[in-house]
Specification:
The chain is an alpha/beta fold and about 325 residues long. Helix content is about 45%, strand content about 15%. It has 2 domains: about 180 residues, 3-Layer(aba) Sandwich (Rossmann fold); about 120 residues, Nitrogenase molybdenum iron protein domain (Rossmann fold, 3-Layer(aba) Sandwich), CATH 3.40.50.1980.
């Protein structure tokens, strides 16, 4: 555990840069709180849920931020260097931050790739575009994100063994909440006719969601937004949407809607009108004071948006 003056300075530094990240939990600087810096809002929320008041969980990437393209600022590097523990997703989600994580390891800061360390290779979805890599968006299968929660509990207990039992109890409670969210997604999915369970989005982030809950998924871009969609991608997706009369497509909060709007226009030129069914939370949570500001809230809001758009009559 770091000394009180140093740890307080780290917390104050994080507070100054709050506009660039997301801080969970009590703002009071307690000398015995574990300082955890996580890359994504999903990981920061997971840490806060399991750590409670004993952990100060700060997320570097706030609402609407694309982790595939994110580059660490000087302030981010300072916060990472002052952390007791660093958590990131891995599986190349934070593709431009690899060198920063390596520098932190060299400084002796414990760094963990939670998704890579919690899910077996058999559970991962291969990337068609990037051979030898896997889809990093495991949080869209609630049962896989439960494995991530178990890994976070282990990491916190190792860093703060005196509170290991508290972290275990909080994990058990949160796993039960996740079970209920998983069941809710299945219930809402059942309201959508089977032939309409097709999700068309800005990028291919919903593969695990589709596999877990029975949806066919098509993304304009691949699993990484670093690979831009071209005209051929737009036309191919428009062909499919028009031919199958898909009732709605979805935009994402962390990606410009221009790509999906181009598909919509291309579908219109084929004599079919496809609607925009709403905005989904893909690579980032929503605003902290909204339902989608937590992981479980985001999961529920996404399925509500999907069900509302796909369960009705086609346009």
């Amino acid at each position: 555990m770091r000394s009180y003056p140093f740890f307080l300075a780290v917390l104050l530094s994080a507070g100054v840069a709050a506009s660039c990240g997301q801080t969970h939990g009590n703002d009071a600087a307690l000398p015995d709180r574990l300082g955890v810096v996580a890359t994504t809002g999903m990981l920061a929320d997971l840490t806060a849920q399991i750590g409670g008041d004993h952990v100060s969980a700060t997320g570097l990437m706030g609402p609407g931020v694309d982790p595939h393209l994110y580059k660490a600022s000087a302030g981010d590097v300072n916060r990472l260097a002052g952390a007791d523990v660093i958590l990131y997703n891995g599986l190349h989600l934070e593709g431009k931050m690899g060198d920063v994580f390596e520098r932190m390891r060299e400084r002796g800061v414990p760094v963990f790739a939670v998704a890579e360390e919690s899910v077996t290779e058999e559970d991962l979805i291969d990337s068609e575009l990037f051979q030898g890599n896997y889809d990093p968006h495991i949080w869209f299968d609630v049962t896989l994100w439960q494995d991530a929660a178990r890994r976070v509990q282990e990491i916190l207990a190792e860093a703060d063994p005196l509170r290991a039992e508290t972290y275990r109890e909080r994990l058990d409670n949160y796993l039960a909440e996740m079970d209920r969210a998983h069941a809710y997604v299945r219930e809402r999915t059942a309201t959508i006719p089977a032939d309409r369970r097709v999700i068309v989005t800005s990028h291919d982030a919903f593969g695990y969601f589709g596999r877990a809950y029975g949806f066919e998924v098509h993304g304009l871009q691949g699993i990484s937004t670093a690979a831009e969609a071209g005209t051929a991608d737009v036309q191919q997706l428009a062909d499919m949407v028009a031919a199958r009369r898909i009732p709605a497509m979805f935009v994402e909060t962390s990606i410009s809607p221009r790509g999906i709007e181009a598909v919509q226009e291309a579908v219109r030129s084929r004599g079919f009108e496809v609607g925009i069914g709403g905005t989904l939370y893909g690579d980032a949570l929503g605003d902290p004071d909204s339902q989608a500001g937590t992981y479980l809230g985001m999961i529920r809001e996404n399925i509500d948006t999907i069900a509302a758009a796909l369960a009705g009559d086609p346009v």
